[in-house]
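Thread: "does anyone have the structure for this chain?"

Original post by V.I.:
We have the sequence but no experimental structure in hand. Need at least a predicted one for the grant figures.
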Amino acid sequence: MSNVKSTSVEVRLPSRLGYEKVAMSTAAAVAKLMGFKEDRIEDLKTAVAEACINAIEHGNRLNEGLSVGVVLSAGNDSLEVKVIDDGKGLKTVPPRPDIDRKIHGEEDPRGMGMFLIQALVDEAEWVKGSNGKSSYVRLVIRLDGVPE
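Reply from O.Q.:
Generated one for you, tokens below.
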């Protein structure tokens, strides 16, 4: 996408598990057009899926009357993805999970999505919506970046 300032793609998903795959495919297609390497596209797909599942389950609480918006903004050297729900957002960021305890069944195996997202992209930010509406997660993955 040389010489392109910014291109945006928007997708609206029902709050039903399984539809995160639509966002994954869309994000992968945009990243491929931008020239991302295959391993980075896989990282992006996983992060987008996790963000969408969180929005469906925790943000919209599986309420099929609500939808999840996914906005992909392609710049010259990075792709920003916003996953927007109609929920109230997180009260606080949960403590870092103890992976060993989860593996050994001493902790609920769920609850690692936010940390997985942070490990796969270059930037991740959770923003609580005003008036308890339209919370979102903002992910950025850079063409030349390598996740930490």
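V.I.: this helps a lot. The first strand starts at residue 7 and ends at 14.
O.Q.: and The chain has one domain: 7-142.
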